[in-house]
UniProtKB/TrEMBL annotation:
Pfam families: SmpB. It is found in: Cytoplasm. It comes from Micromonospora echinofusca. InterPro entries: SmpB (IPR023620), SsrA-bd_prot (IPR000037), SsrA-bd_prot_CS (IPR020081). Required for rescue of stalled ribosomes mediated by trans-translation. Binds to transfer-messenger RNA (tmRNA), required for stable association of tmRNA with ribosomes. tmRNA and SmpB together mimic tRNA shape, replacing the anticodon stem-loop with SmpB. tmRNA is encoded by the ssrA gene; the 2 termini fold to resemble tRNA(Ala) and it encodes a 'tag peptide', a short internal open reading frame. During trans-translation Ala-aminoacylated tmRNA acts like a tRNA, entering the A-site of stalled ribosomes, displacing the stalled mRNA. NCBIfam families: PRK05422.1, smpB. This is SsrA-binding protein. Belongs to the SmpB family.
């Protein structure tokens, strides 16, 4: 069976973009079992409360939920198990160094299939304070209002 080309998004973490200021992103593979891959191909996964953490010089993804495969038998996986992330040594060292230097964390933004391989997009992020979130919402509303007014003017519907 040939591998499908392109990128198919399985799950995304929209809350992470709201709660964190994204500084840098990395693409990582994941060490998965067969039933986890089948469950992901069925589009079943959740990144809510997921985060990446360093342990013994390796990166692991905690809190990601991949439900049990419905047709699986006794070989089924544990839904919230810790999964190893597959990155190049240089990328791992860079991520570990930046998280240790202070205030930064690693959060998954989305899980997808890239040319048939399960991947996760990991972001190096800094937590936002509640006033930062309010400022972002106010800015987004102002930009939306400007775009709405500009759209009217472009269509000849001046106020």
């Amino acid at each position: 069976m040939p591998r499908e080309k392109g990128r198919k998004v399985v799950a995304s973490n929209k809350k992470a973009r709201h709660d964190y200021a994204i500084l840098d992103t990395y693409e990582a593979g994941m060490a998965l079992t067969g039933t986890e891959v089948k469950s992901l191909r069925a589009g079943r996964a959740s990144l809510v409360d997921a985060f990446a953490q360093e342990r013994n010089g390796e990166l692991y993804l905690h809190g990601m939920h991949i439900p049990e495969y419905t047709q699986g038998t006794w070989t089924n996986h544990e839904p919230r198990r810790t999964r190893k992330l597959l990155l190049k040594r240089l990328e791992i060292d860079r991520l570990i160094g930046k998280t240790r230097e202070g205030g930064l964390t690693m959060v998954p933004l989305q899980v997808y299939f890239s040319d048939g391989w399960a991947k996760v997009e990991i972001a190096l992020a800094k937590g936002k304070k509640s006033y930062d979130k309010r400022q972002d919402l106010a800015k987004r509303d102002a930009d939306r209002e400007i775009a709405r007014v500009a759209g009217r003017r472009g269509k000849g519907m001046d106020d």
